[in-house]
Amino acid sequence: MNEKIIIEGGKKLRGEVTIGGAKNAVLKLMAAALLLDDICEIHNVPALADVKTMLEVINKLGVKSEYNENEKFIKIDATNITSCTASYEYVSKMRASFITLGALLGRCNEAKVALPGGCAIGERRIDFHIKGLESLGAKVKIEGGYVVATATKLVGSEITLDRPSVGATENIMLAAVLAEGSTIINNAAQEPEIIDLANFLNAIGADVSGAGSSEIIINGVSQKDLHPAVYTTIPDRIEAGTYMAAIVASRGKAVIKNVFPNHLSAVISKLTELGANVSIIDPFSLEVSCPARPKAVNIVTQPYPGFPTDMQSPLMAVLSTAKGISIINESIYENRFRQIAELRRMGADVQQEGSHAIVKGVRSLTGVQLKASDLRAGASLVIAGLCANGTSEIEGLIHLDRGYENIIEKFTMLGADIKRVKIKDTNINNVKNNKRKQKV
User: Fold this and answer.
1) What angle (nearest 5°) sits at the alpha carbon of residue 309, between those of residues 308 and 314?
2) What dihedral angle (degrees, nearest 10) is formed by the CA atoms of 415, 417, 421, 426?
3) What pLDDT score does 424 carry?
4) What residue ranges of the chain are covered by domains with CATH 3.65.10.10?
5) Does 119 qualify as catalytic in the annotation?
6) Which pTM value belongs to this model?
7) For the domain with range 23-232, which CATH number is right: 3.30.540.10, 3.30.70.100, 3.65.10.10, 3.10.350.10?
8) Catalytic member of 84, 119, 290, 387
């Protein structure tokens, strides 16, 4: 849509906000449903563009689905898979759909999934995925822009990842569910979304243990061992962290509901270090406040349980008005400083030196016209606009729509002056007017 967000900054956020289901968990659960020769239901599903894209991907494989945005659930019937090819048309829209590779290979002993191509925030290698599937007995080749994997049968194996890749861990887990024997993944990713995937797989009859640690064990089961289930996914820790950062940046005070506080330990630690107050008021709610100007802190992004790369951009917006100099080391993705140029236009003093960003806090930012370049950079600009003096206008909303459900409504509930409006295309109107004049 040709729309933009308009923010009148300078208002302290107050009230409460409820967090939705985890995007990065739900998408993988939808892919995992391909293993089941039956029906499953996934609840706490956020209304996001990425969810709709994943539905397009699996529906093209022959899946029947029902998506109720109001009730936040998806019913998936993968009884009759008619295709094992995930085409470029859909995979190119969203890299997460590449996770269908492991599920299709496990279910059908064959899979053809388009290479996901480039990524705005940096390189995301697939060699870990391929090596893992080959260790299970698959023959994998890259042909015509597709990863083509086939296997007479998959056999469990011990696999050690060079680094704890989330995507590779997930693809191997999915392929190993119906493999013969046991699979051990060493140096596995430990993110909460990995645990959620394992819990879902166990709910439908798989045998997965160790998720959340560096060693995951998958004991293969047969297709007849899998059965229907109703499953509720975890809250989105990155959405929660984004609202926490916005509250701190505005120097407000608010309650964040429907969260798992232990998933946010690294974020809470940094917010506390910069001067915020974060209190756990019940098992699923946090109160966040920051009455004074934040203090500078240093950040190094790391795989979970370290500080998440997805929170680097939102925290940079907070630190842009902090007292002192902060250094941010982005160790995960090389292009994840794309918000810097736009923050500078608002008056931020940020310099990039390779994988490091040096943030010299200024007293205040000024609202200007901005454009989001990716999902988390867009969140960073919204936070900056909320605490800036004057009016900010943000374009590129296609990115925000991928990962933030009802962002305007939620910030409005916190007292922000924020709205979404259509952009008047003056250039097109001028062309039409000129053509009319020429005819006259």
Assistant:
1) 95
2) -170
3) 80
4) 3-20+235-422, 23-232
5) yes
6) 0.94
7) 3.65.10.10
8) 119
